[in-house]
Amino acid sequence: MVTVVLTPLGVTILGLLCERTMHPYEMYQLATLRRGRVVKIRPGSLYHTVNRLEGEGLVRATGTDRTGNRPERTMYEITDTGRKALVDRVSEMIANLGSEFPQFPLALAEAHNVDAATVVGLLRDRLGHLEKAIDDLETATAQAYSIETPRIFVLGDEYLLTLTRAEHKWLSTLVAEIECGDLPWLTEELLDQLAKSRRSQSGLGKD
User: Fold this and answer.
1) Facing residues of 59 across strands?
2) How many CA atoms lie within 13 A of 13 on its CB side?
3) Helix axes 43-55, 8-17, angle to 10 degrees
4) Average pLDDT per run of 10 along the chain, which is 207 residues long?
5) HSE, side-chain direction, 13 A CA sphere, residue 60
6) Taking Cα atoms as reference points, which of 202, 4, 144 lies closest to residue 85?
7) Rounded to whole angstroms, how far apart are CA atoms 161 and 167?
8) pLDDT score, position 204
9) Which of 79, 98, 104, 182 is buried most deeply by CB count within 10 Å?
10) How far apart are CA 79 and CA 77, in angstroms?
11) How far apart are CA 139 and CA 74, in angstroms?
């Protein structure tokens, strides 16, 4: 038996279909509104994913729907196999840390190769983007609560808001440490010290 691997978009689609039968355009609208900050959602990708899920037996067409003068749209529902696949994948994602390797931690690890003033300027730019993201997330969650959206549907945004606030706080402290010299930057003198330390530890500095 072939194990179905659900992409984030596939998880999103199955989650929507657990609520009710929908056509792909409605899926796209709701997915963009609810999950646009955690999943990359494009119309073409969504339609392709719906077709793939149907081919794997996770969703099935139930008929067509027409509103006004618009073309008929195929309606889909989730199958029992699709529900099981969704539960299994969500459970796996909750329990495991995953194997993603984001770029920003690597950039920080190599930031000493860029002069300190430039790094401070770039981090200040990033702090500005984080402030905008925090404002957007606070607005989104406030709007959700204002229309009495159950909190279980807003947990993803709550998590992102918590992480974004934490990153902003940590980076603000880091910028201050670099600027005031509490975090010494890479210099030729520091490189010499590191080299001497390595030679001493390996015994190479002994006569």
Assistant:
1) 78
2) 33
3) 70
4) 78 95 94 89 94 96 78 92 95 84 91 94 97 96 90 92 97 96 84 77 60
5) 7
6) 4
7) 10
8) 56
9) 79
10) 7
11) 34
